[in-house]
């Protein structure tokens, strides 16, 4: 067959297949043009999901009369002119294909007037052919109406969903743009009903209020963080608000909405430990990066982005969110200088491996049941070692470990977990609650220790050590015996996630830890691990490793004899109840004991 160059109309129809997938993509392109034109007011109106009618009007700069037709030509753009411009794109559009593509598959009317011009211009294009150009009266700015989308490409119509679904996609598109541009007032009207309105007062908080409503906005807190030349700004929901999917997570790069796995993985990683698996944090986060750092030209609708360095983006978002969570957690005091919960390696394995895990809540939790009345229930309480009983001043509570927040549980599968009555804390050491006709006592230290241990061992098995870097190395002086033990086992410490160098004179410099710990505890941890090694020399490496991780978990856990807030207690109860089989702390002590009503009644001789 002879090769022919396609005529413009046909090639535009083919291009339209890429850019114009459905009404929402039309709205995205048109509203982005309005933003690029400097509009502060954008109204989007649709009928029948946008298939019949889409109207986007703005108060932007307008188009010169002589450019009005040109705007519809393929690769006609006012936004770039040299190849170098591609490395520094600051506008949303730049390909110059949207108007040409849309006009190829619909009947499009454009009315536009620039500032200072007494009259406006009207251009009509039907299926890629100009069908009108005239002078018209119109307000300053641009209005584009798209009638009968895909009327000449019926095959595309078949791929559309119901009008309601298409309308919801359009609404989502407007929402994304509104979050990106709090300085612009957006209104969205569908079949005559106003569905969304933002005031354009340049306050992201108000946009979130207008879009997600009061329930969420009350728990949203500001994020502001700079990491090298990456700036992160926006709002995240504290762990008491969440969704069961990622629909309430929006990420922007240089003002452009982006779907990017690295970014949500970093967000979710920051919430690890304060949000149950299977629930997703809420966030609207804006990243500002040098334009050359990101390639948004990889996706026709520019929804995906490629970064020069994924790990830097991960790290910036992770720290931005983690710091914000710590700052906003009144139950956790921050520690002095020196401890940061930093992932040492930017390309920490965690970010690629973080995957949504289904919430596993087993029917009938495995908990110690004392149907058979224990002869001496108090024994368990007394077995807390003296060391654990020492009052630990709050300022040395590890910074990011004992973060427990109540999870507000949605849906039915969780209802069991909320079916308990919290009675309080006993001796600042035990959490007491009533559930299903029994009284339960949780040993806060043992339970927390177990939960940290579970996490460490799981992370270790799944991904290898996950080191936390210290701002400045901590120097630990060892005895000559300990030092020689360390020298023999340096590699073992590396495997656990420590980075340690010899520092002369029987001292070592600790630069990284497997988990964030108060610096005051580092010496204890190292020495305890050395003790474990010397005591268990002939055990399998696996056993020594587990024991060493016990030590780390023990040091990092909430101590006994510390008052806990209600949020913390509830979160701990929930986490303990969701453990699959966790009757004991890593040291073998019980986490939780249950006192049956029968047992209590027996003690009072109500029954025999
Ligand atoms: P691009 O946005 O990639 O430049 P488009 O096909 O979307 O390409 O638009 C072509 C040109 O039309 C733009 O570069 C801009 O100059 C002009 N234009 C489109 N929409 C508007 C608008 N709402 N206000 C002002 N100018 C517009
Ligand atoms: Mg455009």
Description:
- By secondary structure, the protein is an alpha+beta fold.
- Helix content is 33%, strand content 22%.
- It has 20 helices and 23 strands.
- A hairpin with a 6-residue loop joins β3 (107-113) and β4.
- α2 runs parallel beside α5, α8 packs parallel to α9 and α17 (519-535) runs antiparallel to α18.
- The longest helix is centred in the C-terminal third of the chain and has 20 residues, at 444-463.
- 41% of the residues are buried.
- The structure holds adenosine-5'-diphosphate and magnesium ion.
- Magnesium ion binds at residues 29, 32-33, 93, 98.
List the helices and strands and how they pair.
Layout: H1 8-19, H2 23-36, E1 41-47, E2 53-58, H3 98-104, E3 107-113, E4 120-126, E5 129-136, E6 141-147, H4 154-157, H5 163-180, E7 185-190, E8 193-197, H6 204-212, H7 214-217, E9 220-227, E10 230-237, E11 249-253, E12 256-258, H8 261-271, E13 283-288, E14 294-295, E15 306-307, H9 310-327, E16 342-343, H10 350-353, H11 378-382, H12 386-389, H13 415-418, E17 421-426, E18 430-435, E19 438-443, H14 444-463, E20 468-477, H15 480-488, H16 490-496, E21 499-502, E22 507-513, H17 519-535, H18 541-556, H19 566-578, E23 592-596, H20 597-603
Parallel strand pairs: 1-7, 11-13
Antiparallel strand pairs: 1-2, 2-6, 3-4, 3-6, 4-5, 7-8, 9-10, 10-13, 11-12, 14-15, 16-20, 17-18, 18-19, 19-23, 20-22, 21-22
Helix pairs in contact: 1-3, 2-5, 8-9, 14-18, 14-19, 17-18
Adenosine-5'-diphosphate (ADP) binds next to helix 2 and helix 3.
